[in-house]
């Protein structure tokens, strides 16, 4: 009897500890027809941004970011400012691509910078926290993600960037992004009381 009770408790605790990505909080995450909802992450802007029909998953569009800085840069790109709750877990991801045949060499990633105001004007000193970078030119798209990062004390917003960074090179460097996601993690707590295993 005691063993059965312990097993039941252990299974319940395990169920509570499993996290999953929730609803995507970004506007126009798939760049279906335009770049609406996204703004430049740099001032002055040493980049050009465009929409194109190519899609990572067979849909209808993606973002094209061209780094035009005359030398290396630590990242330029598109951003959104999303309200967050300090102490809550968040995850982010994106489909990324570096078209082959370029003279310049660089990288691309999806980054988050925790901010202390809802306009994303004041960093609280945490971040940016990036997905693993994509650095090699590929003819196919590559998925990158960061899971289960806790918004620190003082964070009220997250500045979500799709970044394009290049090494010291005068030539333009082009990257592509699609299906970007930023979400609050949810906790799986189904006790199967209703007999359903849908979750």
What does this structure look like?
- With 199 residues, the chain is mainly β.
- It has a single domain, classed as Galactose-binding domain-like (Jelly Rolls).
- The protein is built from 1 helix and 11 strands; from the N terminus they run αβββββββββββ.
- Strands 1, 3, 4, 6, 9 and 11 form a 6-stranded antiparallel beta sheet that branches. The protein has a 5-stranded antiparallel beta sheet with strand order 2-5-10-7-8, with no helix packed on it.
- The protein is globular.
- The protein starts with a helix and ends in a 12-residue tail after the last strand.
- The N terminus is likely disordered.
Task: Give a brief outline of the structure.
This protein has one helix at residues 2-17; strands at residues 19-24, 39-40, 47-52, 62-67, 76-83, 89-97, 106-115, 129-130, 142-150, 157-166, 173-187.
Keywords:
Jelly Rolls; 8% helix
Write down the CATH topology.
Jelly Rolls
CATH superfamily: Galactose-binding domain-like
DSSP E strands, number: 11
* CATH C-level name: Mainly Beta
Name the CATH architecture. Answer: Sandwich
Write down the overall geometry: globular
Describe how the helices and strands are arranged.
Blueprint: H1 2-17, E1 19-24, E2 39-40, E3 47-52, E4 62-67, E5 76-83, E6 89-97, E7 106-115, E8 129-130, E9 142-150, E10 157-166, E11 173-187
